[in-house]
Prior knowledge:
GTP binds at residues 364-371, 447-451, 511-514. This protein is of the alpha/beta class.
Amino acid sequence: xxxxxxxxxxxxxxxxxxxxxxxxxxxxxxxxxxxxxxxxxxxxxxxxxxxxxxxxxxxxxxxxxxxxxxxxxxxxxxxxxxxxxxxxxxxxxxxxxxxxxxxxxxxxxxxxxxxxxxxxxxxxxxxxxxxxxxxxxxxxxxxxxxxxxxxxxxxxxxxxxxxxxxxxxxxxxxxxxxxxxxxxxxxxxxxxxxxxxxxxxxxxxxxxxxxxxxxxxxxxxxxxxxxxxxxxxxxxxxxxxxxxxxxxxxxxxxxxxxxxxxxxxxxxxxxxxxxxxxxxxxxxxxxxxxxxxxxxxxxxxxxxxxxxxxxxxxxxxxxxxxxxxxxxxxxxxxxxxxxxxxxxxxxxxxxxxxxxxxxxxxxxxxxxxxxxxxxxxxxxxxxxxxxxxxxxxxxxxxxxxxxxxxxxxxxxxxxxxxxxxxxxxxxxxxxxxxxxxxxxxxxxxxxxxxxxxxxxxxxxxxxxxxxxxxxxxxxxxxxxxxxxxxxxxxxxxxxxxxxxxxxxxxxxxxxxxxxxxxxxxxxxxxxxxxxxxxxxxxxxxxxxxxxxxxxxxxxxxxxx
Length: 560
Ligand SMILES: Nc1nc2c(ncn2[C@@H]2O[C@H](COP(=O)(O)OP(=O)(O)OP(=O)(O)O)[C@@H](O)[C@H]2O)c(=O)[nH]1
């Protein structure tokens, strides 16, 4: 059974089989977000969650009964593939060298440009100051140089500290969630039964699957997945998006829980302040300032904050909304902002095309999480049933190639690399595309350097890689994705601007959303750059990166 993470569904064939034996869905969709708190909707969500849990149980049982699925390649093919890989850049580079050399695209080894002392951009000062050491052997990933953290970022760090110390004296009463309601009803039922029953039946306890007397939850307990508050929240988020309980995978639930946990710091600071302010009629000046502060502390940025407040204020002038509805309206504003790039230029469905070569060039400064992200996407892609390959074109640091190889082996995805240190990255990309074409690869992930002698060299190199891709694979679906470290807050935006000058960026991958109070940076990126967020990372593990969903993000950011 293959769950396609890009499509957020099981691949068609498996889906059909699954549905034949699936437990029928029971949730009725709420007509509006405000309806979430009605007992009927709460009950529906609870039933939906139970059905989803049971279906995941079934998936687990059938997965454990299935024979181990083989790798992507048959044994023979694997051998051939290896041979091709062994041949590395040699035959490919030899095959069409004139084409490239004639165009002056490929530099001979050792002919890389000398470090230049000019530094047009302060963000690259450190890079320019550091000597070019092609044999750099560091095994540990490098942190983003402090110099990257400019005044804006320093300010953001200060504000983040303030965020931590900001403890609202008395949180405003939250609307009763369906969890609390279900628990209250359960307690009441329990009490009634105790009072009236001669022989008390075993009470339903949906929190402990397999409890005697609870037939629908009987069966194998799902290892590592309790039917708890986190499960119920995740189920509600999925159900509210129109998903059916039989379409949900264990990975989705786990991911949503992780995302919510990751955004915990941002959410706690935001939601407590917002709940206390909204829902009291039109916003007065003091309330506007408080919302502004809360959003700016979450690194939403001035431009996006102004728009959010304007839209919220407009609505509250038209009608006085109770807090739950005002928050629901705020969520809508945030979702619309995050989805705006899809109305203008970009496709909302970010899915590699099957049986087509998709090439994703991954850029970003060192330390942003580029290598880790490539490994995670490779894993996601492989798990989702795509033939995947990685081209290790960050040849500036020897350690970078080794790191990509480690992630490649974790994801069980081959890596095309040139063993020669400081070799031409464009040649590696060229070889990567040749290998991808020969193997019928569907997704080729290209790692690129995050640091060169100076900004100009870095940008020239990225532009050159893009030209090679366009020339060598004119029919491929190409995306240029920038990896940004969410903890850098506004400073990440400056990096994005620099990169977008060199390569035609088509999206952003936001990493390290866990453990930052600056989760609002996603809104600033979309508002200021007009770029869609394509993936978000919330942890260092291979499973900790998933395609971005504005609905899920906003729920995790300011949901209950
Ligand atoms: N907490 C957290 N850490 C992350 C995430 N993504 C990456 N990291 C960590 O960030 C550090 C840098 O990640 P790398 O993938 O090595 O970054 P890079 O951009 O490739 O940088 P170089 O390795 O220097 O080329 C590593 O310690 C990763 O484990 C994330 O989503 N959350």
